[in-house]
Amino acid sequence: MYLVMGITGKVGGATGRHLLKQGKQIRALVRNREKAAQWADQGVELVEGDWNEVTAIAAALKGVEGAFVMLPPVWAPSPDFKEAKEVVANYVEALTKAVPPRVVALSSMGANRTSGLGIVTALSLLEQGFRSLTSPVAFVRAGGFFENFLYGLQAAQGGTLPVFYNPTNRKSTMVATNDIGAEVANLLTGPAWPGHRIIELGSMVSSDEVAGQLGEVLKIDVKAFAIPRAGWAEAFEQFGIPKGQTGAAEQMFESLNAGWMDLGGNGTEHVAGATSALDVFAAAQEAAKK
Description:
This protein is of the alpha/beta class. It contains 11 helices and 13 strands. The strands form 3 sheets. An 8-stranded parallel β-sheet has the order 3-2-1-4-5-6-10-13, with helices on both faces. Strands 7-9-11 form a 3-stranded mixed β-sheet. The protein has a two-stranded parallel ribbon with strand order 8-12.
């Protein structure tokens, strides 16, 4: 039995699919059983609760062979990242009580740093908090998600893909959520390890390359366009971040453009992605037809 947190989301869902393909039994902690009904239909054991409840997390961890944990995404965090600190504290308390044989935690490129990270600060806090756990822990430092470019299926109809990456020909680590799920499943079910591991997951890809692959799917010529720095706040607001709360997202891309998402951190392992941006765009376009 394996615990998968966030199973109704992209990464948790991908992890669940890969574990089921391996014939493994899965347990998921969910707030809404109805939203997770498709997983129950596939034999997944649902436990009600969420990451704000230590008792619920501990109950979901009981008897598992391994656990996949992640933080809920917060694009407009409090200045002190109290949301992340509270969830990390809950995880640490529950994992200290249950002590599963292994833990795989979703992190991010750049989480080895402790400042100037914007939103990724939450994952740096997670890594720091989990260092005290006695269970073997693997931190999966994923690159930027190709799925975060899916807005381009509509936005790039005119031939331009607006991005926060600048310059657009600079490569940074990117990955598809399907590949994250595959790696997490392999870590949960593969050979055991002692202590802590850090896996950098993804391949070096530029926004220009992503735009080119989007163009192949749309069957038009698409070019990446770097949104001017002065227009970032307004652009993030259009993506749904409340006005006046875009600072953490802006800081993340400032740091990313400065190179902190490059591969090759000390003491890390590297796993390249197998799924391209083109694959992600094509799958999303096909799914929209159904």
